[in-house]
Amino acid sequence: MKLSIVLLAIFFCGAVYTTYGQTSDAEAEAIVNLLGVQKKEAVAKLVYVEPKDSVAFWKLYDEYDQLNRKTAKSRLALYEKTAHSYSNLTPEVADTLATQYFANRMGQEKTLEEYYKKIKAATNAVTAFQFYQSEVYILTQLRASIMQQIPTYGQLVHASKKR
Predict the structure, then answer these.
(1) Total structural domains in the chain?
(2) Global pTM?
(3) CA distance 44 to 147
(4) Could you tell me if 23 and 31 are in contact, meaning their C-beta atoms sit under 8 angstroms apart?
């Protein structure tokens, strides 16, 4: 029950991500920090860490989280840029946005893989795999929640043609 409450809170924050028309650096930092705290609570429920490995795991997780926050802020800025681009989406702008999304996601995946390896070396492969699973699960849920809040460009085009 508690896990579902924490995950719902994370999804709520994901929805909040999309409601900001113009997010300041301080607002983006606050959103990402709140999301990070809630995500850590969810990871604590999804990953069983042996007591002997706890200090090493959480130290590495905190490092990972700090790197991931930079990626999250970049992703938030990218969502805003996308929303602003819808009014004048040219092929060049669309290509630039797609390239930036690919780079953002690949950076996030590289960091995840890097920390999987670090956690495996510091603890064991089972703990590292649980970390990987929890991150993929949470990121997938969060991305789905955010994408459900943002219409695709095609949806906007269809809606405007129906008028």
Answers:
(1) 1
(2) 0.78
(3) 26
(4) yes
Question: Residue 66 falls within a domain, yes or no?
Answer: yes
CATH number of the CATH domain containing 40 = 1.20.120
- Give the dihedral sign, CA 61/62/66/67: negative
pLDDT at 118: 98
The residue segments making up the domain with residue 9 are 2-154
Residues 6+ apart with CB under 8 A from 23: 31, 76, 77, 80
Decide: residue 105, CB within 10 A, 0-12 exposed, 13-18 middle, 19+ buried.
middle
Short-list 34, 32, 41, CA closest to 7: 41
Contact predicate 73/24, CB 8 Å: no
137-151 exposure pattern, b = at least 16 Cβ within 10 A, e = fewer: ebbebbeebbeeeee
Can you give the pLDDT at residue 1? 47
Alpha helices (runs of H) in the chain, residue ranges in sequence order: 2-19, 25-46, 54-85, 91-122, 125-149, 153-162
**Cα(66)–Cα(61) distance, rounded to whole angstroms?**
9
pLDDT tens track for 70-115 = 898 898 899 889 989 999 999 999 999 999 999 999 999 999 999 9
Residue 64 domain flag: yes
